[in-house]
């Protein structure tokens, strides 16, 4: 009898440890370390992320299941200049944003110049009096609906090439950043942008030798390296690694503020540089220099946010998932299929345990599509706006740069001040309300996804909708600028959306979540320009304001989706109902996930 029990015990233990396929000799030591860690994780009866087995009074369990704040213990023994922090990443990200924003307006005007030049040469091949456009100057011969439509369509082709490729690359980059670190992926992304700018410089210098369609090659390289959307997602993953839940909204707001400040200062500096040098190419030289500085800083100065233990753990989890395949003759083919499975990152949206609250899963899906609409419009509407300013009001490159800078400076101010003021007012009111009245719902204070996040999201979408309605109604450049300033307040919604989504997934899937968000952003980067540029190309000669009406309708749809999002009370990854401590919680005093089990 004893031998039978012993035999069954050994059989159960053997089933708990998956077999690891044989590796090549030169990788044996590394694979052995990962295999040993995978066995330890597999043999544990409970997942460490669930925080099971902790006492009722242990308030160190955060909403994602990890200890609160577990990374404080991991970084406690590291010297301060090697400790990851959002403040390390903000300055180089600002440089990266300046490089991206600085070439935004010059690139569109360069496309307009090259397209106009090609159109005039093909239409009047033997005209001796043909006046070709001059780069960096106003060219009235290019301000006709036909050339505007051709420029918008070619910009659409470039955007589609970048967007489609980066849509498939971004999730993989997000998953790889979980295993190999955030900084390596950021370096690859910046290298792609640098190479793309170098190709544009060659095309601008030699327009008679190189066909302007080679611009598609720059878009191809940028998309293969993930493009800007993947870089933005990885920086959010970096902030998530070194920021607790109750500070993520502020941290994401800082990154969005740094983004808009960089995009604001970049076009302004580029406009001054172009005006001084009288050449669009100078803006691209400056962008190449900024990308190089960003790569050096990220590679050699900034500390990695994921510790070696965290990366080894994520690699071990990857090995466990890979070893779930059956040991058959086609297992190697299945392994190869998994490596090129671009749909796998979206499993993060279907692995949520909804037994305690089905609202969490509904919220995640709604927030996912709301963020896709808002971010897609933010990334795509700039093209038609710049072309509209050039066509409707005949603004020069420098004037367009000043307009772009003014809008993004307003976005920067909105991101820095409005969320912080809202949190101060909300926390002050909540503390006063708790101390002067009895409310049976007061235990829900700041636990999970609260009403403050919802209010910021809905208000931001509403302001941005009003801005595009103002664009359509404006009949002068001054009214157009006022509408843009009003719509820029809507930028407060985007960081809150990303922060809210990270509260709905486990800690070790945040990189995968943000990578999946980058995937959908890339899809919207293709779909939004496709329809917007097509609408503008068709209506530019009749009713060019139609594109802004379409944008307002899309944001109205996002606002309706936000009405389906509900507050979430309690922590993630547990089937036991949670409530928050009755003491008022503020973002500077306690974590939003410091909950006690009833």
From TrEMBL:
It is found in: Membrane. Residues 11-26 have a biased composition (Polar residues). One of its GO terms (cellular component) is membrane. Residues 1-58 are annotated as: Disordered. The keyword Transmembrane applies. The chain crosses the membrane at residues 86-105, 154-173, 185-206, 212-239, 251-274, 280-302, 364-389, 409-433, 454-474, 480-501, 513-537, 543-563. GO terms for molecular function: transmembrane transporter activity. It is a multi-pass membrane protein. The keyword Membrane applies. InterPro entries: MFS, MFS_trans_sf. Pfam families: MFS_1 (PF07690). Keywords: Membrane, Transmembrane, Transmembrane helix. Its main location: membrane. This is Putative membrane protein. It comes from Erysiphe neolycopersici.
């Amino acid at each position: 009898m004893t031998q039978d029990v012993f035999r069954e015990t050994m059989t159960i233990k053997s089933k708990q440890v998956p077999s690891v396929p044989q590796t090549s000799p030169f990788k044996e030591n590394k694979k052995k370390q990962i295999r040993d860690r995978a066995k330890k994780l597999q043999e544990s009866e409970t997942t460490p992320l669930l925080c099971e087995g902790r006492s009722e009074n242990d308030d160190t369990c955060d909403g994602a299941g990890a200890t609160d704040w577990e990374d404080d213990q991991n970084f406690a023994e590291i010297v301060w200049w090697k400790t990851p922090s959002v403040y390390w990443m903000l300055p180089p990200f600002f440089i990266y944003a300046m490089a991206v924003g600085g070439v935004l307006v010059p690139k569109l005007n360069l496309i307009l110049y090259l397209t106009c030049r090609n159109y005039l040469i093909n239409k009047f091949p033997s005209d001796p009096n043909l006046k070709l456009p001059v780069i960096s100057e106003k060219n009235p011969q290019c301000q006709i609906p036909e050339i505007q439509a051709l420029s918008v369509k070619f910009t659409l082709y470039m955007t589609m090439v970048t967007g489609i490729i980066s849509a498939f690359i971004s999730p993989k980059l997000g998953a790889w950043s979980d295993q190999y670190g955030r900084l390596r992926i950021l370096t690859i992304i910046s290298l792609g942008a640098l190479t793309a700018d170098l190709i544009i410089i060659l095309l601008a210098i030699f327009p008679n030798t190189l066909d302007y369609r080679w611009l598609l090659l720059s878009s191809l390289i940028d998309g293969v390296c993930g493009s800007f959307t993947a870089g933005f997602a990885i920086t959010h993953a970096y902030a998530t690694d070194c920021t607790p839940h109750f500070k993520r909204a502020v941290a994401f707001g800082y990154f969005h503020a740094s983004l808009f400040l960089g995009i604001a200062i970049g076009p302004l500096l580029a406009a001054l540089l172009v005006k001084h040098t009288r050449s669009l190419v100078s803006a691209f030289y400056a962008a190449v220099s900024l990308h190089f500085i960003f790569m050096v800083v990220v590679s050699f100065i900034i500390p990695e946010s994921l510790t070696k233990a965290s990366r080894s753990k994520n690699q071990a989890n990857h090995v466990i998932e890979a070893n779930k395949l059956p040991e058959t003759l086609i297992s190697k083919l299945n392994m190869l299929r998994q490596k090129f499975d671009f749909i796998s990152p979206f499993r993060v949206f279907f692995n949520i345990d909804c037994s305690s609250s089905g609202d969490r899963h509904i919220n995640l899906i709604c927030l996912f599509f709301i963020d896709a609409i808002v971010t897609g419009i933010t990334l795509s509407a700039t093209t038609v706006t710049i072309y509209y300013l050039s066509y409707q009001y005949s603004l020069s490159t420098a004037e367009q740069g000043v307009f772009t800078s003014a809008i993004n400076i307003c976005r920067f101010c909105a991101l820095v001040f409005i969320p912080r003021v809202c949190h101060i007012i909300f926390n002050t009111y909540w503390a006063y309300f708790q101390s002067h009245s009895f409310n049976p719902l007061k235990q829900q204070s700041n636990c999970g996804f609260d009403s403050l996040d919802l209010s910021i999201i809905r208000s931001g979408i509403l302001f941005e909708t009003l801005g595009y309605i103002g664009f359509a109604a404006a009949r002068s450049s001054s009214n157009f600028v006022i509408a843009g300033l009003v719509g820029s307040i809507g930028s407060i919604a985007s960081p809150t959306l990303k922060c809210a989504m990270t509260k709905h997934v486990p800690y070790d899937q945040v990189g995968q979540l943000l990578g999946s968000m980058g995937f959908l952003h890339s899809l919207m980067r293709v779909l939004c320009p496709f329809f917007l540029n097509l609408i503008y190309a068709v209506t530019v000669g009749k009713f060019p304001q139609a594109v802004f009406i379409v944008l307002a309708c899309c944001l109205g749809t996002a606002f309706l989706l936000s009405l389906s999002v509900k507050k979430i009370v309690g922590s993630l990854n547990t089937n036991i109902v949670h409530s928050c401590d009755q003491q008022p919680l503020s973002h500077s005093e306690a974590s939003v996930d410091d909950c006690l089990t009833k």
